[in-house]
Every structure is written in structure tokens, then in C-alpha cells.
Specification:
By secondary structure, this protein is α+β, with helices and mostly antiparallel strands. It is built from 17 helices and 22 strands. Strands 6-9-10-22-21-20-17-11 form an eight-stranded mixed beta sheet, sandwiched between helices. A five-stranded mixed beta barrel has the order 1-2-3-5-4. The protein is globular and about 95 Å long.
Length: 588
């Protein structure tokens, strides 16, 4: 039906006859000459119809936006002064000789030939129309290029693309499972995989040595801008490797992708221990583009009478930290109040501050309602530690360590963006040396990553002091987003048993949830490790999109629904009966 795509018709084809198909992007009538911009996935081409070709002219006069047409015409140079250097086809136009309407179109729910603000609910309801827009076409084509390059890179490195099951059994991986009832085994349920974690470990036991998969994963959890109930993961696993091997392969792949697709050299990725990341940035995924750090000041405030600071300063599980914001003294009281509300989202009860007006005058050159509570001497010691300058503001967090880290860590990022403090466009790093476990409020231990992550110590050392043990885990972080994470896995049955005991997972529960993996470990499991990247998040960052919904063809809403297909939907009672399910009446 066509000889060329619209976007391929350039000055190299002048004086040639071409045939192309597409959608009517824009129609203009200029003094009896009709101009149609015809669009396909490769771009736009300007087509001119004049009254000399009566039938074609009349048809062109009748078409409207988004009609599907086939055009045959002669390529010619545009008149001098009318060229468009911003378009690949901007130096030519096609003199239309024939035009066939292949399909008419109803009035679009929103204009596609110009930018107009459209609510996301409308965009998602008419997603097939939204996907015609240049931005969405670019995003999905870019995604295709990245996934193609990923496959090529991993293939060159000897990784095998192997699929793992979608219908599997529920295993604890941190979020709720999507459950699928079984018709043939009534009363039993499959679970959609949150990740291929256990299967990729089994593939290492099977001797495949290097595996990868661009895998669909499913998690029933509360959503936000970078989360979806179904998402895509670049999953990797390899045998007979150490941390440096997996991290090296993953870093090389990401650097090649950025270099090829964006022309960006990310350079070497620094390594940062988890403890340093939390201490300096309040986050295990720090945005290193922002030149601000948290500084501990608890030792200077333990003996004051002001309990708001003294209490957390004396509490082993508390923290008192300060965040110096260069030039932040210009913030108004209203802005400070807004930031106070912001940190409240993370559990902070308030946001103390000191403005530095004239530091050479000592406390007289400072402005704050809290100086009288912490004392002149302590105040100046804090200012010295922070090396403040005139025009700075210092914010304080005092509470449980986790609250201070989350609140000041988030405030640091927000201020960095609000005050345009970013020092570079891209800042990658590896966060390493994670703790094996974290202690919950009830005193129980919880695996920071998952119970198959190997510790960097022996089973005996792990038993003796589990809270001090470090894991052999690693996360790749870019611009404050966790791109991917992984670890060296446990391949020894004794170590796996020790971890289960520390997590208080009974032998019965072990057999119920992980029996097939424990059985496999008895048959010569090799040392192995791996990593998984969030593909959607990677594409979101590389395209500068606000949400991963902008880089997924048919995403769900923030309430995990598809407004286009009206899913999830009700199921006939007959189908429910076949799988042994009876619904309770909805509560009034």
C-alpha cells in the first residue's frame, strides 16, 4: 500500500513519485490550495492539493483530523523561505495526485496537532489516541531501542534468555501477591510472581551459568509515580561469581546504554556503604547531584534542658541532625511553614531552624526561636561544625533515627530541586554493605532484602550477632532513584537454615514456602548471584518523564485500575462457581 513511510520522504526523493499512508495530522486551506500534514510513526510529510486535480482536491477538502488516508504524489522542493529545518521532511512537500480515504474518524477526545493540557484520566481512557502523540511515540520507540540493546549486550556476555513461570506459588517477598484461583485444584491458588527470584536461583542449580529475562512482575501494593501493579524487570543471575562480577556486568551495560542512546558518559560509579548513605543523606538511594549533607549534632545537645533535642540525643535509637542550606536564609516564614508541613508527611513533629545573617557577630547575627533553648555556646559550636556562611539556613531533625533520616533526607531532595541546587545532570553510584537484618518495633528481625541474600560472615558469626552482620547486597542508584538491586545468594544449606532460624521461620513454614528451593540446595548448588533492574523506571529517567505511566503502553491508574478496559471487572457467578469461590455481599 505504500512505497515510503511519511518521515522518510526527504529531498533525496525530489521529482520521484511516492505512495504513503497515515493519519491526517493537520488540515489547512490557503486560498484554494489545501495542505494536509500526513503522519505515521516515522514522522510528518506536508502534502499539497490544488484544484487542477479535481477528484483528489475534492477528497482532500472533505477529510478531517485523524482520517486514515493513502496518498500518491510527486515530491518537490518547498518554495524558498517556507522550509522547516526542524523536520526531516522540512525541505520538501508532496504534490498530491491521488488520495484515498481508508477510514474516517470521529472527533478526537483531545487535539493531537497541538499541545493542550488533558487530564490523565481522559488520556488513559482513550490511551490508543494518547499513544499517537509524538511524546508517547518517542517514549515507546526509545523503550524498544533500550530493550533491544540490553538483549544484544547480555547475549554477547553469554547470558541466556530463559522464561520462568507466571503461574506459581505464593512466596514472601515484601508485598501482597496477586492470587489466581485454580479450577482443577479447588481451594488452592496460584500467585503471580513478584519477581523470578527463586526460579532464577534454580536455573543456577540447573547449570545454565548465566541467565537473563525481561520479565513481567506483579505486586499488589499502594501505588505512586514510580510504581505499577504489573511492571517489567531486567532480571540477571550468574554462577561462580562475586559481587564485582555482577556489579561490573551491570554497570557496563547501563553505561553502554546511556552512551549509545543518550550520548552520555556516566563515568565510573562510586561505591558508598549503606551506613554512610544513611548518615550523610538520610537515604539508601542518595541523590548526589545535591550538594548538601546531614550532620550529627546529638553530642552537643545531650545535656541541655530542652527535651525536644535532649531526648533523642540521649536515646540510642534516636538522632539529632542538622541540614545546612546554602543561601536558604532568603526563605520566607510562609515557605518554612510549608516545608514544616512537608516533613510532617514523614512523621516529623516540627522543623526547627536557624537563619545565618551575620555570623561574624556570633549569636547576635543569628535568627531563630530555638537559640534560647539550646544556649549560645551550643549554638555557635553547631555553626562551627557546619561551617555556615552568611545567608545560610540550618534545619534540624530530632526524633527516632528512622524519622529523622526520612524527614531530613526528603527535605534535602525537595530543597535541592526547589532552589535549583543540582550540580550535574546524572549522578550514579553503588550502595553496598547493607545490614542483613533490621529490627522491627516488636523486636523481631526482618531481612532488609530477602532471606536468600548471603551475609558476609560465617553461620556462627551470624548467629552470635545478627544485627551487626552485613549482607553481600548491592543497589545501583541514579539521581536518587534505585535503578536496580541484587546480591550474592546463599548456596549453602547450613547458612540458609541459620538465616531462617534468625528470622524465626519454623521448619514447617520453611518446607511450606521454600521446600523446593531447600531441596535443590542439597544437590550441589553453585555460588551464584544476580541483580534486577526496573526497566520502567530506567526508561522514565532516561526520557525525563514524570511517571512510569508515561513509558508503559497501557498502564494502570494510581488505584490499580484500567479505565480503558474497565478492569478489574465483575465475573459471572458461573465462572466463580467453577473455581469454588462465593462472594460475600458488599457491606452497606
Amino acid at each position: 500500500m505504500r512505497s515510503h513511510y511519511c518521515g522518510e520522504i526527504t529531498e533525496t526523493l525530489i521529482d520521484e513519485t511516492v505512495t504513503y499512508c497515515g493519519w491526517v495530522h493537520r488540515r489547512r486551506d490557503h486560498g484554494g490550495v489545501i495542505f494536509l500534514d500526513i503522519r505515521d510513526r516515522e514522522g510528518l510529510v506536508q502534502t499539497v492539493f490544488d484544484p487542477d486535480t479535481v477528484e483528489a482536491f475534492n477528497t482532500a477538502d472533505s477529510v478531517r483530523s485523524e482520517f486514515v488516508v493513502q496518498v500518491k504524489g510527486l515530491v518537490r522542493a518547498r518554495p524558498a523561505g517556507s522550509e522547516n529545518e526542524n523536520m526531516p521532511t522540512g525541505k520538501i512537500e508532496v504534490l498530491g495526485k491521488e488520495i484515498t480515504v481508508l477510514n474516517k474518524a470521529a472527533t478526537p477526545p483531545f487535539p493531537l496537532d497541538e499541545y493542550s493540557p488533558v487530564g490523565e484520566d481522559v488520556r488513559l481512557r482513550y490511551r490508543y489516541m494518547d499513544l499517537r502523540r509524538d511524546e508517547m511515540q518517542h517514549n515507546l520507540r526509545f523503550r524498544h531501542k533500550v530493550t533491544t540493546q540490553i538483549r544484544n549486550i547480555l547475549d554477547e556476555q553469554g547470558f541466556l534468555d530463559i522464561e520462568t513461570p507466571i503461574l506459581t506459588r505464593a512466596t514472601p517477598e515484601g508485598a501482597r501477591d496477586y492470587l489466581v484461583p485454580s479450577r482443577t485444584h479447588q481451594g488452592s491458588f496460584f500467585a503471580l510472581p513478584q519477581s523470578p527470584q527463586l526460579f532464577k536461583q534454580l536455573l543456577m542449580v540447573s547449570g545454565f551459568d548465566r541467565y537473563y529475562q525481561i520479565a513481567k512482575c506483579f505486586r499488589d501494593e499502594d501505588l505512586r509515580a514510580d510504581r505499577q501493579p504489573e511492571f517489567t524487570q531486567i532480571d540477571m543471575e550468574a554462577s561462580f561469581v562475586e559481587e564485582k562480577d555482577i556489579m561490573g556486568a551491570a554497570e557496563s551495560m547501563i553505561k553502554q546504554i546511556f552512551q549509545t542512546q543518550k550520548g552520555i558518559d556516566l563515568g565510573e560509579f562510586p561505591h558508598m556503604p549503606y551506613s554512610e548513605a544513611m548518615n550523610k543523606y538520610g537515604s539508601d538511594k542518595p541523590d548526589l547531584r545535591i550538594p548538601m549533607e546531614l550532620v550529627d549534632v546529638a553530642d552537643l545537645l545531650q545535656d541541655i534542658e530542652f527535651k525536644v533535642f535532649a531526648g533523642p540525643a540521649k536515646d540510642p535509637k534516636g538522632r539529632v541532625a542538622a541540614l545546612k542550606v546554602p543561601g536558604g536564609a532568603e526563605l520566607s516564614r510562609k515557605q518554612i511553614d510549608e516545608y514544616t508541613k512537608y516533613v510532617g508527611i514523614y512523621g516529623a513533629k516540627g522543623l526547627a531552624w536557624i537563619k545565618v545573617n551575620e555570623i561574624e557577630k556570633g549569636v547576635e547575627g543569628l535568627q531563630s526561636p530555638i537559640i534560647k533553648f539550646i544556649g549560645d555556646d551550643n549554638t555557635m559550636k553547631i555553626m562551627d561544625r557546619l561551617e555556615v556562611k552568611n545567608g545560610d539556613i540550618v534545619f534540624f531533625g530530632a526524633d527516632k533515627e528512622v524519622i529523622v533520616n526520612e524527614a531530613l533526607g526528603a527535605l534535602r531532595v525537595k530543597l535541592g530541586h526547589d532552589l535549583n541546587m543540582l550540580t550535574c545532570e546524572w549522578a550514579p553510584l553503588w550502595v553496598v554493605d547493607f545490614p542483613m537484618f533490621e529490627e522491627l518495633e516488636d523486636g523481631k528481625l526482618h531481612a532488609i532484602h530477602h532471606p536468600f541474600t548471603a551475609p558476609s560472615c560465617s553461620p556462627e558469626e551470624l548467629k552470635a550477632n545478627p544485627t551487626a552482620a552485613l549482607s553481600r547486597a548491592y543497589d545501583m542508584v541514579l539521581n536518587g532513584c534505585e535503578l536496580g538491586g541484587g546480591s550474592i545468594r546463599i548456596h549453602d544449606q547450613a547458612m540458609q537454615q541459620t538465616v531462617f532460624e534468625i528470622l524465626n521461620i519454623s521448619e514447617e513454614e520453611q518446607r511450606e514456602k521454600f521446600g523446593f528451593l531447600l531441596d535443590a540446595l542439597q544437590f550441589g548448588a553453585p555460588p551464584h548471584g544476580g541483580l534486577a533492574f526496573g526497566l520502567d523506571r530506567l526508561i522514565m529517567l532516561m526520557t525525563g518523564s514524570e511517571s512510569i505511566r508515561e513509558v508503559i503502553a497501557f498502564p494502570k491508574t494510581q488505584s490499580a485500575a484500567c479505565v480503558m478496559t474497565d478492569a478489574p471487572g465483575e465475573v459471572p457467578t458461573k465462572n466463580l462457581r467453577e473455581v469454588g469461590i462465593q462472594l460475600r455481599p458488599k457491606a452497606e
